[in-house]
Amino acid sequence: MVKHLSLFELNSIVREIISMSLPDSYWVEAELSEAREAYGGHCYMELIEKDERSNTPIAKAHASCWRNRWMLIKPHFERVTGQRIHAGMKVLLKVHAQFHENYGFSWIVDDIDPNYTLGDMARKRQEIIQTLKEEGVFELQKELRLPMFCQRIAVISSASAAGYGDFCNQLADNGYGLQFVTSLFPATMQGEGVEQSVIAALNQINAEWEQWDCVVIIRGGGATSDLSGFDTLALAENVANFPLPIITGIGHERDESVLDMISFRRVKTPTAAAAFLIDHLTEVYVRVMDAQETIVQNVKHRLQVERMRLERLSSGIPVQFSLVKTKQGARLDRLMARLSSHVQEKLSRAQRHLEILSQNVQPIAERKLLNESHRLQMLAQRMKAQDPELLLKRGYSITLKDGKSVRSAGQLKEGDIIETRFADGAVKSEVSKN
């Protein structure tokens, strides 16, 4: 009968074989697809290798760095590289093989060479810079000009960052009493979300860019190991093509990041960014004050010159006035003579015209009066012929009702009182039948 092994026995054999076959440690190049620190202080990593042409994975492995080693490796790595270990980073690990009956196979990390990662980071940074130069945008920010009165500041920072408060306090407490207007556009300033968060804040500012004079990207109070998000092509392209000058003060202690290289102006800290803006506006203030003093002096000099000129002119005014008075008097006399002659001529012409009109009008008026007198006589005769008194004297009578003449019997009704007038009197009667 064939002898059976338990799973534990089988795994124990595998562990012994691996322990005997791979007793040494090995330096291995790999890319991190995942890196996380466990609650107990251990660090667990997923390693991957990709095909250079197709970028598809060709090898994967699990690696662990126990707490006692990780506490020594981590600070040294972050101090040299300026970054925390994270997914996507290429690393050179010193590992040895370990197989555990319960947890299976794993590479145990003994050491990490930060210089290898630093070299890879420098290579990536150089690739980004080369891409930006090929696109022709590497120097675009440098070609911008900070507005003379740069006072409206759009700030990209974490709302809780100490550096943001330091920046605002520095601007507010400047020695010249210069006024600045700031508005915060919150963004994640450390960790893997930096790129997307800062780009989103830039898009918000770009939507109202005419309201701002410049943009300040500041970060304070965080570890330098959280700055990898500022070394990305997408963020660099956004900053390079931005229409406003961008000032960075993100606190790099090592070489400047791609974001620093591409920005309009790079300073080390948020307070340095505030000092730069204060110095710029102070220079403008001094220039304005100097220009004001120059204008005042020029005006004073000009007034003095004009005052002297007026004094010279005023001294010659009496003589000039006398000459002008004589010339103008003679001119007025000539004008009066011409005016008098012209008026006399006009009056003579008008008088002659009136005489001619009067001679022509009189015969016409006399004929008109004679005709009208004859017409009036004829009308008088006709009126006399129509006089009612003459009719009454000829034997006619007039019947009146209520003072009005009655021309028809239809105007009367039974009981009406009528008056009949004759040449020598009048009688009243009552209508008894109509």
Automatic annotation (TrEMBL):
The EC number(s) this enzyme carries: 3.1.11.6
GO term, biological process aspect, one:
DNA catabolic process
Q: Do you know which CDD domains this protein is assigned to?
A: ExoVII_LU_OBF (cd04489)
- Entry's PANTHER family? EXODEOXYRIBONUCLEASE 7 LARGE SUBUNIT
Instruction: Tell me how this protein assembles.
Output: Heterooligomer composed of large and small subunits.
- What function is annotated for this protein? Bidirectionally degrades single-stranded DNA into large acid-insoluble oligonucleotides, which are then degraded further into small acid-soluble oligonucleotides.
Provide the protein name: Exodeoxyribonuclease 7 large subunit
**What's the source species for this entry?**
Segatella hominis
* Gene that produces this protein: xseA
